[in-house]
Amino acid sequence: MKREQAPYRVSLVAIPEAMTFTLNGLFEVFGSFGLLSAQDPSLPRHAPFTVEIVAAQRGMSPTASGLPVLAHAAIDEVARTDLVVVPSVMVDGGEWRCHRHEPIVRWLQQMHREGATLCSACSGLLLLAETGLLAGHEATMHWAYEQTFRRNFPDVQLRVEEMIVVAGERQQFVMSGAGMAWHDLVLYLITRYVGAAAAQSIARFFAMQWHDAGQAPYIAFAPRTDHGDAIVADAQLWLERHFSAPNPVDEIVKRCGIPERSFKRRFTAVTGRAPIDYVQSLRVEFAKRRLEQSDQAIDALSWDIGYEDAAAFRRLFKRVVGVTPGTYRRKYRVPAQPRPSASLVEAHVRG
What we know:
There is one protein chain. By secondary structure, this protein is an alpha/beta fold. The chain folds into 2 domains: 8-216, Rossmann fold (3-Layer(aba) Sandwich), CATH 3.40.50; 230-332, Arc Repressor Mutant, subunit A (Orthogonal Bundle). Helix content is 43%, strand content 12%. It has 15 helices and 11 strands. The strands form 3 sheets. Strands 5-2-1-6-7-11-10 form a 7-stranded mixed sheet, sandwiched between helices. A two-stranded antiparallel ribbon has the order 3-4. Helix 1 (20-30) runs parallel beside helix 6 and helix 12 crosses helix 13 (310-321). The longest helix is centred in the last third of the chain and has 19 residues, at 275-293.
């Protein structure tokens, strides 16, 4: 899918909710080929992309952090582009409100009609979904905004465990997951439009990585507690403190004083998880924190959180997180702080 004629035009969308680290990062990487090609012969000598920031109006555009960015063009000045990327956004209160950026939504729809590939990074999917073009398609985004997304766009098949989702008959929608998944997005687009060798070169230069395990290792278990059901809320509070107890589901059924079948149905209805799944999620979340922060043997950790069979714990962890406990520890453990160099220590002693 490569071409040698004119560079691909990349339009990055700035709205007041945009996060500058994604916006600026995409701008820098797409625009880096000219500077890096002299150092790496695997990169094309001519820049394969021209990149711009677009907004409702040309000029300085506000962002979520308060740091303005320069919009090179207004959307009504861009009649056609090749790639559009909506960066991550910061949503006030965590609840997305539609219809605040209707001119940009209409422009995105127009760019789609003109053949552009529409992309979103992280929570930028919230704006992209307003176009209605993702109905019936799979998509991904930051898991923290899953609930507001599902309330606003129930016809989109959200898969928050995925880091990259490509959808559409002509693969015209490309969406990436949480925060730094814009790395995966830009590397995917470079691979698709320039080639794998160029993407690898860019990744090596910027020390970027593909998150090939998906988002599952990063997703924190954050159960609903605002449902208003006092009996279920009391059960949740007890489980948070006693999830490692033997047969915790049986215990909360006894504590609540209602029939087991009724309780389980009620618990599942308001939390979205069956009680046993809820307990397993609490145990896995605790195990993730322990693996990140300690050297405790995995068999001992398994016992501490309520599993006498360490092999069963390993299978559960792999199913929920996507990697084994050992792999998780190696990849996500908090690293030791670097020691000062010998020369600095010597200078301090002399001083």
